[in-house]
């Protein structure tokens, strides 16, 4: 059984304790990750600070070349990483699975390499020249989740490296192996100390560590609040991309046959284990039955099983706790009169397999509507008045994403502007791009990722005044 190493200062760390990682499809051990010590955490932060002194001063081209080299290394090792990712996370190799995630990593690295933050001229008058510089913030602590472990790691790492920061990353304990291996690979393209990784319980101390200047965290809202509290003592800069309970509103004029596939994948991408997935679907009463039938026809024809079998489009839920939560929310909906259109009961045998589940005849106030299920269960909610649907969509404490589905784009835009979310899609749900900012409002986060605005989150501003 392979043991995967922490990387500190460009070298493998010698750890005394190891923990197993379970394949959610088989419940067998995939490999082991190291339990880093306090001394090793302190060393990782220290070498990142040392490396920052020189890395922050490197020419712009050096950092661009490094990101492109990182992309080359990921591409060369994509097959290994995708197989390891499928084994520890559960997602299929094919389709919108591990190979897709690796392509996302490569694309994001190259896209970020192409971004820049040039000096801005704020004033050029007879009295003065005023300039605005963007300077790297320092050492970044990256804390990543288990749903898209590699791609989200790249979302954190790429902009930090691009602007001249150094990084200490702590991956989720459910899916650390592929990230450990990827960081080992990426170090081939970087000076020692620029990119470090620690695992184990000690990693939870990163947000409060005095040697950290910025924390970027992707995960649940409750954990995000703890991260924010821990970072507050040192007044560290933070970017938090937290939970979502995204609502989609299907307007009465929507062509259901044209949007059904988009609705389905909006809700079930990555087996529903995506912060920005469609979690609540509001459908006008005039088309409610048609939508229920269309989604059921798609869901019941999707093969589910071990992700290493290329015939499977869906895999298991990643871990037992999440599996139990999805089952609990569906059972609660059934007890309150929810109508199961498909799925609704765990699959027999080994693995955390819960079938694609559609629940009709539910309403606000039920747990499956009010809470983030983060799994393969989608509630379909009937409405009669569009203004009421908007109000219900906005009733959540979360505000990551939302969507409006209509044949009338102008009408859809009018409704979309009323949705309280950081991102709103029209006639699709969930796609993100490296050049378009993404972030949440309300309890779904602070700050943004992606685009120039996301790049700026890893910098501090310095205004320069030059009299003439």
What do you see in this structure?
This protein has 468 residues and is α/β, with parallel strands linked by helices. It folds into 2 domains: 7-242 and 444-467, Aldehyde Dehydrogenase, Chain A, domain 1; 246-433, Aldehyde Dehydrogenase, Chain A, domain 2 (3-Layer(aba) Sandwich), CATH 3.40.309.10. The protein is 36% helix and 22% strand. The chain has 14 helices and 22 strands. The protein has helices at residues 38-55, 60-76, 78-89, 98-113, 149-163, 177-186, 221-232, 256-268, 288-299, 320-335, 367-370, 386-393, 409-416, 451-456; strands spanning 7-8, 11-12, 18-22, 29-34, 120-124, 128-136, 139-143, 166-170, 195-197, 214-218, 237-241, 246-250, 278-284, 339-342, 357-362, 377-383, 398-399, 401-405, 423-426, 441-442, 445-446, 459-467. The strands form 6 sheets. Strands 14-15-16-13-12-18-19 form a 7-stranded mixed beta sheet, sandwiched between helices. Helix 2 (60-76) packs antiparallel against helix 4 (98-113) and helix 2 runs antiparallel to helix 5. The longest helix is centred in the N-terminal third of the chain and has 18 residues, at 38-55. The protein is globular. The N and C termini lie far apart (68 Å). The mean pLDDT is 98.
């Amino acid at each position: 059984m392979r043991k995967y190493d922490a990387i500190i200062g460009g070298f493998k760390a010698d750890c005394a304790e190891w923990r197993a990682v379970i394949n959610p499809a088989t419940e067998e051990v995939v490999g082991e990750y190291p339990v880093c010590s306090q001394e090793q955490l302190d060393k990782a932060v220290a070498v990142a600070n040392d490396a920052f002194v020189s890395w922050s001063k490197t020419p712009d081209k050096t950092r661009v070349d490094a990101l492109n080299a990182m992309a080359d290394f990921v591409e060369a090792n994509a097959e290994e990483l995708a197989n390891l990712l499928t084994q520890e996370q559960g997602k299929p190799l094919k389709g919108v699975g591990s190979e897709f995630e690796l392509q996302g990593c490569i694309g994001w690295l190259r896209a970020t390499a192409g971004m820049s933050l040039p000096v801005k001229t704020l004033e050029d008058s007879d009295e003065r020249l005023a300039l605005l510089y963007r300077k790297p913030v320092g050492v970044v602590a990256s804390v990543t989740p288990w749903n898209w472990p590699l791609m989200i790691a790249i979302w954190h790492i790429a902009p930090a490296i691009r602007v001249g920061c150094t990084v200490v990353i702590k991956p989720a304990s459910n899916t650390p192996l592929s990230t450990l291996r990827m960081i080992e690979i990426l170090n081939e393209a970087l000076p020692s100390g620029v990119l470090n990784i620690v695992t184990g319980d000690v990693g939870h101390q990163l947000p409060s560590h005095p040697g950290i200047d910025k924390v970027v965290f992707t995960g649940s809202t409750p954990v995000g609040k703890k991260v924010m509290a821990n970072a507050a003592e040192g007044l560290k800069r933070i970017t938090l991309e937290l939970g979502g309970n995204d609502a989609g509103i299907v307007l009465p004029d929507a062509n259901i046959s044209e949007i059904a596939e988009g609705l389905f994948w909006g809700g079930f991408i990555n087996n529903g284990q995506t912060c920005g997935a469609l979690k609540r679907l509001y459908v006008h009463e005039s088309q409610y039955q048609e939508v229920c039938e269309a989604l059921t026809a798609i869901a019941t024809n999707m093969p589910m099983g071990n992700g290493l079998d290329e015939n499977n489009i869906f895999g298991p839920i990643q871990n037992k706790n999440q599996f139990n939560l999805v089952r609990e929310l569906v059972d609660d909906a059934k007890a309150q009169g929810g109508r199961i259109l498909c799925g609704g009961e765990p699959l027999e045998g080994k693995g955390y397999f819960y079938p694609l589940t559609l629940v009709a005849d539910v309403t606000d106030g039920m747990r499956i509507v009010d809470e983030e299920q983060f799994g393969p269960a989608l509630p379909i909610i009937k409405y009669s008045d569009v203004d009421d649907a908007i109000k219900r969509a906005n009733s959540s404490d979360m505000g990551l994403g939302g969507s409006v589905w209509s044949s009338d784009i102008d009408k859809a835009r009018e409704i979309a502007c009323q949705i309280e979310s950081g991102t709103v899609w029209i006639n699709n749900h969930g796609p993100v791009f490296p050049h378009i900012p993404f972030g949440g409002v309300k309890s779904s986060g602070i700050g943004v990722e992606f685009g120039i605005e996301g790049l700026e989150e890893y910098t501090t501003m310095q205004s320069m005044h030059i009299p003439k």
